[in-house]
Amino acid sequence: MPAIIDSVLRAGEGKTQRKLKRIASQVNSIEEDFAVLSDAELRAMTDEFRQRLVNGESLDDLLPEAFATVREAARRTLGQRHFDVQIMGGAALHMGNIAEMKTGEGKTLTGVLPAYLNALSGKGVHIVTVNDYLAHRDAEWMGRVHRFLGLDVGVILANMEPDERRTQYRADITYGTNNEFGFDYLRDNMAWGLEECVQRGHNFAIVDEVDSILIDEARTPLIISGPTDQTTDKYARVRKIIPELELGEEIEASDTQRVAELGLQLNEGQKYLTGDYIVDEKQRTIGVTDEGWETIEKLLGIGNIADAENWELKHYVETAIKAHALYKRDVEYVVK
Q1: CB 241 within 8 A of CB 277
Q2: Nearest CA to 90 among 8, 148, 145?
Q3: What is the pTM of this model?
Q4: Which of the residues 197, 266, 297, 308 has an alpha carbon 20 to 30 A from that of 93?
């Protein structure tokens, strides 16, 4: 990347870092004021902060004092004091940024800061983790800090009944996995009335392992399936032809060796598809070639697959190829 472009893209980083350092300095400057408070006085700060919000102050106004409160509470309950880099990371998360922290810098403890601050509004905070173990562990471990300060902490785990989920979502801070939060959201959108919903809104969320959840995990859609009045004849019909299809490859003009082997003549930027379908493992997608559609039409004994009466069948074919090529039983799915 040219140096001038890199400098333009990074132009705002220095300003953001200076702002975060100022916040850390503010928190440090009042640290001793909170260290001398009794446990009851420290816990009472939560009620004071909430009242100040009602009186018109913003969360940004409360941030230095709230962070100092959490730092002292963590020292008393966990024996761990937030370092400046954790204060800066917590402020970055509160401002809606992604904070990348090195191994050992304590990202779990960092998340307690913005979680507490945003929970003061009473609208709830979601902490999104990658598995049930971490959700349960962090709810118990970091929850000690929040409970010490008078907040309720909940956790969403697999196999919980709706009533129990509803109770956990009413907590000030709720831990859970992206799948549990996602499926609860989908089920709530299918509910017949508000009384059947388990979530109470989406105010503020902290996503742990954001690259895994928002990139890797996001490639797999969350789907709720149920019984249907449609017959399964078309599925069975399509499934029988899938083994007859040939997996191909996408050949680019730059791949001179393969181009020569196949005797192709491609211009720069052109691509050539072989076989009946190709698979993109990285993007988790499949594509059917023109020759592939001709083969499918012959195997199914139909006319043009693009005709309106065959649209549904075309969807079944694409779904069946994708299932066959990308989803392995007992790896991506299980059957019980």
Answers
A1: no
A2: 145
A3: 0.68
A4: 197
